[in-house]
Amino acid sequence: MKNIPYGRQHITQQDIDAVSAVLQGDFLTQGPAVEQFENAFGQHVHAPHAVAVANGTAALHLCAMALDVKPGDKWLTTPISFVASGNCILYCGGQVDFVDIDPATLTMDLNQLEDKVKTGKYKGVIPVDFAGYPVRMDAVKSLADRYGLKIIEDACHAPGGYFTDEKEEIRYCGDGQYADLAIFSFHPVKHIACGEGGMVTGSKQSLVEKVKLLRTHGITRDPNKMHANHGGWYMEMQELGYNYRMPDVLCALGSSQLTRAEEGLVKRREIARRYSEAFAGLNLSFTHVPEGVGHAYHLYVITTTHRKQLYDFLREKGVFAQVHYIPMHTMPYYKNMGFKQGDFPKAEKYYEDCLSLPMYPSLSAEDQDYVIGLIKDFLQQH
After folding, report:
1. Confidence at 2, pLDDT banded by 50, 70, 90
2. DSSP β-ladder status, 319-320 and 4-5
3. Within 13 Å of residue 22, how many CA atoms lie on the same side as its CB?
4. Does one domain contain both 231 and 296?
5. Band (311; pLDDT cuts 50, 70, 90)
6. DSSP 3
7. For position 278, what pLDDT does the model report?
8. What is the three-class DSSP state of 107?
9. Conformational region of residue 375, where left means phi above 0, alpha means psi within -120 to 50, and beta covers everything else
10. CATH number at residue 308
11. Contacts of 125 by beta carbon, 8 Å cutoff, 6+ apart
């Protein structure tokens, strides 16, 4: 029987050689491979600055700290995301609220966002480029400017994704043009697989420098920034930071993976095209992508009223589809804050019906055809 996961890393001999070179070098952490990866990734997503960190969650936490989230500050995000998109505000003592999704894009409904923020209760927003579909960050920025909001773009699903803004210019997810800061993840099933790792990107030098300081315990060794200087050994802790560094070994793997990033995007979009053509006219739904939008396809999501049965059927046949995500506000921890079933009905309906199909660049046409065939067989029986 086949064993086809929903996502899978692809490690080549080039990747192994890159890691091996670091293991045989002088630095395992805080060495030159970090800056090399930062520079290469910044170029990939068209961002002026990039800061490598321990993981995507650390990236979110650092952004919240750099943007000075204080106890009691209220921020908004989407309920359809991994819990880290909300938790980062809680880490700083802030409060989290949600904006329901637009079923057409599965991202935050920007009309509902405006309804929320015009109340004046909120300090910031964390839109999520869900599954790789880019949020219209120019529209978010317009709202942010009008209502005094800060923006963290969660672009973990979307390196290489883009939209066309109101000026008819292509803007890449996480490029720093509209968000104060943006974040990415290098978990094994993401576009760039490092095992663990994350990146903060942005265009504002002062915020980027704050992130760099906070990722290393709040310590600086820069003589130009220190209050005193006792000698070459001297360092100063100037903020309460964390050990959120990404080691050279993982950065070397990331740089190697980046050399195939564009190729991987082409493959993901081809896989998505084949799914969409195969499912046209069937009793299920999938996201339609308009002209001017570059979906990065971290996930390919279908919705069906027979989700649980289809999930079980595929697993029996060796296809390990997945569900992304359980709405954040329905988690026990968040329900203890007062959220309840029914608060965000579009997100809840989506969760009842959604299923993420196998989507990764090394997925063969044969395996994809097997998945498609199983789904068609299932639908004929239901």
Report:
1. confident
2. parallel
3. 25
4. no
5. very high
6. -
7. 98
8. coil
9. alpha
10. 3.90.1150.10
11. 75, 76, 77, 99, 108, 113, 117, 140, 143, 144, 149, 150, 151, 152
